[in-house]
Design a protein that fits this description.
The structure is a homodimer of 329-residue chains.
Chain A lengths: L10 H12 L4 E4 L4 E4 L8 E8 L16 E7 L5 H11 L5 E6 L2 H13 L4 E6 L19 H14 L4 H13 L1 E7 L19 E4 L10 E4 L3 H16 L6 E8 L5 H17 L3 E8 L9 E8 L2 H8 L2 E2 L4 E2 L2
Helix pairs in contact in A: 2-3, 4-5, 6-7
């Protein structure tokens, strides 16, 4: 295992220290329990909190700041953060309007966020993101997994919360966005979790995992390597079958790299996705291409579509300033 | 070779088509000869043009837009663009104040940019970037290579040009910035150029290339894998020996991923670099961490320092809107 690392046990703490130091205008780091909280908390604003295993950067700590999250709780790589992290983050981020937890649908995350929610004394609610249409149940999940669509939920609800909406409105909007968002990914290689030291799974030189999870969970099928156009057609067919967008519905198209795929390939994927969608009469309104929800150095990518309405479109375009996404500021 | 690709011969054209479609609010694509040009050209502004082999994304096309470049010419992967691309881009981007070519120091690039400069009828000048302190001469270079420091030159000169400075002032400032900028990188793995189909070089499971070039050129030494702190110390020692910053000089620190390294490791590297610099009394003023000048999917990273003066600081902070770097807009 070759990684920029000193000692395996210090990987998470050193990485998050570096992150917080690089973005000390945006976030404050709390070491014990571990969370990052937005520096410029806004009194009376609903606090948005997410968290998950590390290694998916910029998700979630990279989305703390104006217009997205108020706090993020990093767990060890591929491991849920603990309830005490979430409770401490909630206490630090709450400014009187309550806390909305944005939770990717993994059994461990759900259990820990539910425990935190029960113990929190301020008003709180949760939005569960389960955008991965690949499989119904998986290694760490009952139901569908939460993957890159989480970024879209965090951006849109973050914008609504920034505008002063109350806790119930933020929760309802989050669920609305989650329902209109679907993703599917493919892996060409595994990643190596530092604490494990060996690849999470093995793929042959001519194989890919269609529908892979962001922790390397199995997808729909292990297949022989195909062309970009064939892969895109399979991912988009599954996503469109789920969302069934009308041809005039404005779509947000996100092409997300899993960490080890060059940007040039992600743009090629977007070009292929655009051709596929336009050939079928769909309308692309917004585009996001980049490494947003990664799996360490996994080679691969996912595609996410959201069917936008006017409110979602407005909140997508609104200003945001985080480490991982910034415009208008 | 597993890549998101349809046919090897179409890789560059399909990738740049996808890029231009994803950012059609920022750039216009010209297919023959191949270049991207800023959509909102500013009459009377010096046109900044760069280019190079593809596979280093977001460099250079990803830096076309407000506050950086006016046009970029993509060559095939690891191959210089041709003089006719540069001339056509210059004609398209010039709005009367002349053209400044920003050229990474590779023999092929220099030759082609010089040829274009001679044939261009509008006033033009060039800035050569040679920030890589690793080696004096290399596979494709006489003198030092131009690497990630190019991003800093493009940002700072881009800001000055945006403010209305003339061609000679932009050239002089570009050379000033280039002189105050130094970089060095390390690779843990090779990349695979699509047209070659096999890795550019081989590294053992416990080896790294210290001082690697962004095309996989040999560096200072092939070494046994070391800790992040040891690697950072070697890179920063070389860079600081070159720049010899005074302790009060504000530094811009850029930690650049080469494409296949997780963001969490890049932040760990920044934390390590910060500790090394602060222990020696240096002052960090600005930080940039991310994949800015990549080598396809190469695992590895580089560190760049710039010694800032007030003018450089102001131009770093000024607004920018490109695919690869955006703030204030």
């Amino acid at each position: 295992m070759k990684k920029f690392i000193n000692r395996v046990d210090d990987f998470l703490s050193e990485s998050i220290e570096g992150f917080a130091a690089a973005h000390d205008n945006l976030v404050t780091l709390n070491r014990e329990p571990l969370y990052v909280v937005r520096k410029a908390l806004k009194p009376g604003k609903v606090a948005l909190i997410s968290g998950g295993g590390s290694g998916h950067g910029p998700l979630h700590a990279g989305f703390v700041g104006h217009g997205m999250l108020d706090a993020a709780c990093p767990g060890q790589v591929s491991t849920s953060p603990t309830p005490d992290q979430m409770m401490a983050a909630a206490l630090a981020a709450d400014t009187g309007a309550g806390v909305l937890f944005i939770v990717k649908n993994y059994s461990g995350h759900l259990m820990n966020f539910e425990m935190a929610a029960e113990l929190c004394e301020m008003p709180n609610a949760s939005v569960i993101v389960n955008d991965d249409v690949a499989v119904e149940n998986s290694s760490f999940t009952t139901g569908r997994r939460g993957v890159a669509g989480t970024v879209i939920v965090e951006k849109l609800v973050g914008s609504l919360a920034e505008s002063g909406a109350d806790l119930q409105a933020c929760k309802a909007f989050g669920e609305h966005v989650a329902t209109r968002t679907a993703s599917m990914g493919v892996a060409f290689s595994s990643c190596t979790v530092p604490a494990a030291g060996t690849p999470t799974f093995k793929l042959g030189d001519d194989e890919m995992e269609i529908g892979v999870g962001i922790h390397g969970e199995p997808g729909r099928r292990r297949a022989k390597f195909e062309s970009a156009d064939e892969i895109v057609a399979e991912l988009l067919t599954a996503i469109v079958d789920e969302l069934k967008p009308a041809s005039e519905t404005p779509l947000l198209v996100m092409v997300n790299g899993l960490g080890g795929t060059p940007l040039s390939e992600l743009y090629l994927l977007f070009g292929s996705a655009r051709a596929w969608l336009e050939a079928r009469g769909f309308s692309i309104a917004r585009v996001q291409v980049g490494n947003l929800t990664t799996s360490l150095e996994m080679a691969g990518a996912s595609i996410t579509l959201s069917t936008l309405d006017d409110e979602m479109l407005r909140h997508w375009d609104s200003e945001v300033w985080t480490a991982g996404m910034r415009w208008g500021m």
